[in-house]
Design a protein that fits this description.
Elements (H helix, E strand, L loop, with lengths): L1 H50 L6 H25 L7 H5 L2 H32 L12 H4 L1 H23 L5 H21 L3 H9 L1 H18 L4 H13 L5 H14 L8 H14 L5 H10 L5 H17 L2 H18 L4 H11 L10 H9 L6 H30 L10 H26 L5 H19 L4 H34 L2 H12 L3 H18 L2 H18 L4 H15 L7 H10 L3 H24 L2 H9 L3
Length: 640
């Protein structure tokens, strides 16, 4: 009787906790949706006021500047709640369920400590900067920087919930938690003891650059192997390296300010707005009209469905800018038809996976925007956009050639029968609204009508108008689109913010100079250095997603190659092309996993058809490295 009453009480308490957590999560969702919606209104108003009323408003720029930071940090915090941050789960997946739970305890505690540090840094910034006011709204800067405190508290809460679920799930025990905390404390004490030794002082005073390099990448590699969120690993690696030269009492405020300032760039606005525009076009069904156009283009080539898949991914990628979205949307339509017509399904999945990343190069591309901003504008966004066309098409053509050869080998024929002129015109007419988005945005930026950031606003405004005209989206759909935009943007922006900590530390410790000396010590021939970098990035791409890889390695390699005379635009295309190949290579090939889940094929079955595709794509990569004109011809043609 007593036992039943206790059980009932516990169940009621659990229900109350669940309702409370769901309420908090719903509050965060609405906050993020309203933030994205207000940013959408602001960028739309900025475009309309500038080009319709010829009266640009200054308030929109200040609002968007700080709204972006709030979006990056709040959405970044929310992504910890829903478990969306990127990590490398290789070790966790190899362990038994019990040991995996223990490792998850470690990562939860590690992230919890980061949340506490970030909260304290935010609280300190709130107190220190209340007297400073913004230029337009006259809002205390400290109040705006309180988002660090909020983000830190959200991270702390999310990890407390994770710890509770791990401990009550039966796989981890309270003794495991204590042991994990003890190990972390012991490691911290050992680091503190080592910092007092003569060896430490010798390394810091005589070999700072090499020592900082080893600490930075050694710490990050350890966290990466342990399956910690990559953003957290970046932040801790930066903190440990910063601790080599900065007093402990100054580290946390410095870290908080660096992470906050890492997003204080107006150029980053292009990223969430292009994501939003692509999501609206995709969810409204307008982008899927491109599939009919792709089927029309590919029907006259043997293995026509494979060819249509490649063309579809290239066209869809121009709108979504996401390899995962392309593989999911286009592959989801092509795959059932291919199975019905008796196509070889592992090859079908391989073609879909290998062609999906083309959109990372064909503009408007989020990856190229991120590269431009990492380089501090050394390579302009529009120059990178124009440079991405030919390499992006080359990547797709490489897949088309491979697919054609495999289709000929299997005896596949082209589609029989032609299309009437009326049918061709109907397909083109239906696809025209989607294609015009790219034409208007790229043409407007190229013609100097608006900037790349305003171009992202034009893309949002255009896609919104189309969605409303076609009445293809409900209020519920808009809520989902805004929330998804916040989540996708939050993952990337939080990575950028934490990588800002790492980049600042690298510059502070002269790490790019050290790496440059190592590379040029091997060879001062820029082509040889580029090939070495390509080799490193190919290996990195196997284990790391594109965004963190770009954020980590661009600040290291960029000064090296530019000092050797490599064009920044050319190098940006090489980085994005190389890392795009990593999206289709196990064990972290996210696009490959999507293609396999859609087709139901095993990853091992895709290796054989992927090999010839990779061969042709590698030939394309080498051509881009050896012949810079492939990337630079279009930018130079337009005087960029």
């Amino acid at each position: 009787m007593i036992s039943s009453a206790v059980t009932a009480t516990r169940q009621r308490a659990q229900r109350h906790r669940d309702h409370l957590l769901q309420g908090c999560e719903r509050l965060m969702q609405w906050t993020l949706v309203l933030l994205v919606a207000s940013m959408t209104f602001a960028i739309s108003w900025q475009v309309i006021s500038r080009y319709v009323f010829n009266a640009p408003g200054m308030w929109t720029q200040e609002f968007l500047r700080y709204a972006l930071i709030w979006l990056g940090l709040l959405a970044g915090g929310y992504c910890f709640v829903i478990g969306r941050h990127l990590n490398l789960p290789l070790l966790i997946e190899k362990l038994s369920a019990r040991n995996a739970a223990r490792l998850n305890l470690f990562n939860a505690l590690l992230t919890l400590v980061f949340g506490v540090i970030f909260s304290l840094a935010g609280y300190q910034s709130l107190l220190d900067n209340m007297a400073m006011k913004t230029a337009i709204f006259r809002i205390p800067v400290g109040l705006l920087q309180s988002v660090m405190l909020i983000c830190g508290l959200v991270i702390v809460l999310s990890q407390l919930v994770s710890l509770y679920r791990l401990l009550t799930g039966g796989l981890a025990r309270f003794s495991d938690l204590l042991a994990t905390a003890a190990v972390m404390g012991l490691a911290l004490l050992l680091c503190g003891w080592f910092s007092t030794t003569d060896v430490f002082h010798y390394l810091v005073t005589e070999h700072l650059e090499i020592f900082a390099l080893l600490v930075l990448f050694g710490a990050f590699l350890i966290f990466l192997i342990l399956g910690s969120p990559i953003a957290i690993g970046l932040a801790y690696a930066g903190l440990f390296t910063l601790a080599l030269q900065v007093d402990l009492d100054k580290i946390f405020p410095t870290a908080g300010q660096t992470i906050f300032n890492g997003l204080d760039s107006f150029g980053f606005l292009a990223l969430p707005f292009f994501i939003l525009a692509g999501s609206i076009m995709s969810q409204s069904g307008l982008a899927l009209r491109l599939i009919d156009l792709a089927m029309l283009i590919g029907r006259r080539i043997p293995g026509s469905l494979w060819q249509s898949n490649v063309v579809g991914n290239m066209l869809f990628g121009t709108l979504s800018g996401s390899g995962i979205a392309s593989a999911s949307a286009i592959g989801g339509i092509i795959t059932p038809v291919a199975r019905e017509k008796g196509y070889h399904m592992p090859t079908t999945a391989a073609v879909n996976a290998a062609s999906a990343p083309c959109g990372m190069l064909i503009p408007p591309s989020g990856a190229l925007i991120v590269y431009s901003l990492i380089t501090g504008g050394g390579a302009s966004i529009i120059a990178l956009f124009m440079a991405g066309y030919v390499p992006g098409i080359m990547m797709g053509v490489a897949v088309m050639i491979s697919a054609w050869l495999m289709a000929k080998k299997r005896g596949y024929k082209a589609e029989e029968g032609g299309c009437s002129a009326g049918e061709v015109l109907r397909v083109i007419w239906r696809a025209l609204p989607s294609l015009l988005l790219v034409v208007i945005v790229i043409g407007g930026i190229l013609g100097g009508v608006f900037t790349a950031i305003e171009g992202s606003g034009v893309a949002v405004l255009y896609s919104l108008v189309l969605a409303l005209l076609y009445r293809s989206l409900s209020a519920k759909a808009f809520f989902a689109i805004f929330l998804d935009t916040a989540i996708v943007s939050g993952v990337i922006l939080f990575l950028i913010a934490c990588s800002g900590m790492m980049s600042w530390t690298m510059t502070f410790s002269y790490i790019p100079d050290t790496v440059g000396n190592l590379l040029t010590g091997f060879s001062e021939n820029k082509t040889v250095v580029l090939l070495l970098i390509v080799l490193v990035l190919l290996v990195v791409g196997i284990f790391m997603d594109m965004s963190p890889a770009m954020l980590i390695f661009t600040p290291i390699f960029y000064p090296v190659v530019t000092s050797l005379g490599v064009d920044p635009v050319h190098f940006g295309i090489i980085i994005v092309y190389t890392l795009s190949l990593g999206l289709v290579t196990p064990p972290v090939g996210t696009v490959l996993f999507v293609a396999c889940s859609i087709s139901g094929e095993k990853i091992t079955d895709l290796i054989k058809p992927l090999l010839p595709i990779f061969l042709f794509q590698m030939i394309g990569l080498l051509l881009i490295v050896f012949f810079p004109a492939i990337s630079l011809a279009l930018p130079r043609l337009f005087g960029l």
